[in-house]
Sequence to fold (1101 residues):
Amino acid sequence: MSTGTRWIGRVVVGALLVVPLAVALAGPWVAHLAPDSPQAPFSSSTWSPFGTDRLGRDVLAAVLEGGRPLVVTAGLTVAAAYLVGSVVGLAAATTRHAWVDDLLMRPVDVALCFPSLLVVLVAALRSDGSGVAIAVAVGLTLVAPIARFVRMAARDVVQGPAMDALRLQGAGLLDRYARHAAGRLARPVAADLGVRLTAAIYVLASANFIGIGFDTTSPDWAVSVAANKDGLSLAPWSVALPALLIVALVLGLNLLGDAVLGGPDRLRWTRTARRG
Amino acid sequence: MVARFAARRALIGALQVVVLLVGIFATSLLLPGDAADVQSSDLTTAAQRQETREVLGLDTAPAARFVEWVGHAATGDLGTSYAQGRPVTEVITGPLLVSGALAAATTLLLVPIALGGGFVAGLRPGSRTDRAITTVSIALDSVPDFVLAVALVFWLALSWRLLPATFVGVDVGQVLRDPRFLVLPLVVMVARVSAPLVRLVRAGVIDQVGAPYVVQAERLGVPRWSLLLRHIGPNALAPAMQDLGRTGDSLISGVLVVEAVFAVPGVSTTLLDAIGNRDQPVILGLVLVIGLVAIVVNSLIDLAGQRMVPRRLRA
Amino acid sequence: MTHRIALDRRTLLGTGAGGLAALALAGCGSGTTRTADRSFTAVFQGAGASETIDPQLAAATFIDESRTKHLYDGLFEIDSTMRPLPRLATTAEPDADGTRWRLSLRDARWHDGTAFTGEDVLGTLARILGKQEGAKPFNAASSLAGIDLRRSRVVEPRTVEIATTSPSFELPSLLASIGTAIVKRGRLGDKPVGTGPFRFRSFQPGRSLRMTRYEDHWDGAPWLEELSIVSAEPEARQSAVRSGQADFADNLTPTARRTLDGVSGIDTQARKNSGLLFFAMKTDRPPFDDVDVRRAMMLLIDREELVKVALEGAGEVSDDVFGRGYQYYADDLEPHRHDPDEGLRLLTRAGVRDLSFDLLAAPVANGFLEAATLVSRQLAEHGVRARVRVGSQDTYYTDALTQGQMTMGQSGPLPVPFHFSSRLLSTSEKNYTKWTDPEFDRLYDQAQGTRTEDGRAAVYHRMHEILHDRGGFIWWATTPWNTAFSTAYDNLPDGVPNAYDWARFDKVEA
Fold:
């Protein structure tokens, strides 16, 4: 690969990340320039070429405002779920006692069968539609799959021959786990993070599908995508713009993960083989 | 070894099912109102609501109702639906068949796609093919289901008239006889489920290929196909297998959109409907079946995981 | 659950979930040349396992109503102005004090060939007033509670006398109410047998009811040979009617209707005055036990903006009088309009400061949560704090009877007297505003004992005035009922929901 195409690749990854993040973080300051009074729903707007959404807001203005809640909520939810899930998963993977593994993982199996929408529904109804309660419920539904995933990914690392070799060489605990194991786990975990992030984002959209009460007037991107879908044909931008930003964000994060976790050199099967 | 694992898992599995049922029942009690509230309409009176409660046996303590249901369930009788008065088995059989057929077909398509895509991409990371596969899979993963479903319905069914748009007015038997009905829902489900799997397989492959033991083995002249089949493959698949194991919830919550857009009479709709009706016998019956399937599948996957990555014996 | 009355219990996929189904980049309609055959499929919002075709239970959802009206007939039904219309009864004559009615019955036959008689009428009434048979209560039990069965009798096969415990000059209207269709001898057999224009063929709850033409129907045999009434979610309804899998789709969102409007081969209809939207202030507790606070609320909310934004412009502002376009509507009362200055003056007069209350809402109808949020914002501009609490859509109308200081809701078209009796008497079961007013109760009884329609209209008018001045209901908008259908057919139904000519396909022709 020439340096030229690699450079272009970096720009693309950068743009995919920077655009949605910039819109999310700086958007609210720009959004207040938009006219305040609602216009006709799902039709053209006086402020931007993207038209209006179902509430007669300018689509661009709504998108500028709705990124921050999404990025913050989804980000925090997934981070918290990953923290809890990976502690459980890692503990189960490293233990030498089968009963500890069972104690940790068999409840996880049960949790996996729990309909996530029921959990979110109960949280919403018990809290009068509080956003925090719904986010916590979404996070809870993510813990079980994460724990199971981390355990499986970690098990062949921590119990594999390399770790044994390191131990025999007298490498310290910290060295073994923090450097070796964490390094080996980084790639599958990074791939998985993207999966969970989209899952977290769209649990809310599905929740809206079944009529769970939360603030459907929020300009949050995921809420907009779900709530405006009625007008997909009349005002495609009202769905497409927030959806595109979500896609860009997730795609950017994934590509970034790949880029950070190792340059092409280390990973090239063919090259490794040739070197041999 | 395998027999012991199986016996142990069977015992734990039974316990898990009980815990699951208790959990679901308790959660369903947290929803406001009961079946009698839902069944009462704008025309009926509070006295009628009380009568309904008595007819349905809702006036007895929840714990007693649950124990009674479990007792019957042990003999194969899943009780009677509150909303409908029909036996639960009758209510849930149709949806289970339809969802089962969809899930089976999805898995059949899923495995080759996820494996093929993941390996092709993972063996040449950074190549043009890899980029294409990665980008498509991430994009498919981040496009909302309903946008995908609706776009497919619009172009394939409404504009080009290649396929039926929905299951509206079609019997279950007809759907199973005429596979054209299944095409669109299947495409959405496969796209949905395979995208994350492709990426997990790819990540696993890249990781294994770069692993020192593989490099070493190559130096020693182990043929590449043998490396792929015996070592890289099994190790790389482990994380992806875990994702396959999420049968339980994804069978319920994951296909809701598909069922709604195509009017598929499946499990997801039936369960949500039962939750809406506070119809606990149906909720419990469905969760029992789904839970059993999921726990068996998860155990099989764990077993496969152990076989694929043999490790030292545990205490 | 609901509702012919309170419209729209829940669409599984929520209410905003309307019709994305057509990604029609507007205008590029995928026109099909449709030809009319004698087999017709109509799609309605389904209700899953709780769907029923028992006419005494079938009130919960519109799909139940549409299905049963093809299999069974009532003695009376209501037309789109909510006036009773004779069906299986041909005439009804009250005695002098209105406690005994003589009904002549039509010469009709059941699907099994036997004759329809007065025994069937009394049998059905006995069933409705008798013991509940299953999970669902009989819907007409409370509206027909005034009927005295022991004093009612069959005079001759096609003449019955129905006695009531108190004067009831509105009896035909009561006999037209929901859940009163006549079943043979008051019993349901294994296979449904009715007098309706279609015969039963098969039924799967949550899926479909299939029917075939009944040649001997008293109102003439339908042109259609086969009729299927199928359940589906909003997306699927829209795709089905577009692709020709269905010939008629009921209950579309305004946006879905706009989308289908551009498609060739499909026509749409928006039937006005079909949904009546309200806020209900509970008059038995602070802050709404104060008349001036209630009056202030009627002026502080901006209905124009609510309709424009929360209803996406699909609706008409309403004026706190129930039943525009119906019999007994009071069209001469000054509409309440947005007047914050007067509203604030009333609040000051009432000595109320820092007004705050709970507004219970749920996504039970299109635009509800949006409307709740918007009202809360409108009121906040005037220093009034309405905290929106979101409840469960499944049990909302039950919860709304007891919870919250203000609630909201949607009513279907109903006769004005029925609205009064079911929601506003001190004994009413569905008293969303906790309205108890002895004068109001007395006026209602007076109307029931008034022989002439004009006389009753005057009394009802007085009742409207009371509510308009100081009642707990704010009727803020009416919404249209949207349907789409294939242009290949004629004579499609065009009544408002609950009316006899709504969702009725026996007159459909090519």
Remarks:
- Residues 453-470 of chain C form the longest helix (18 residues).
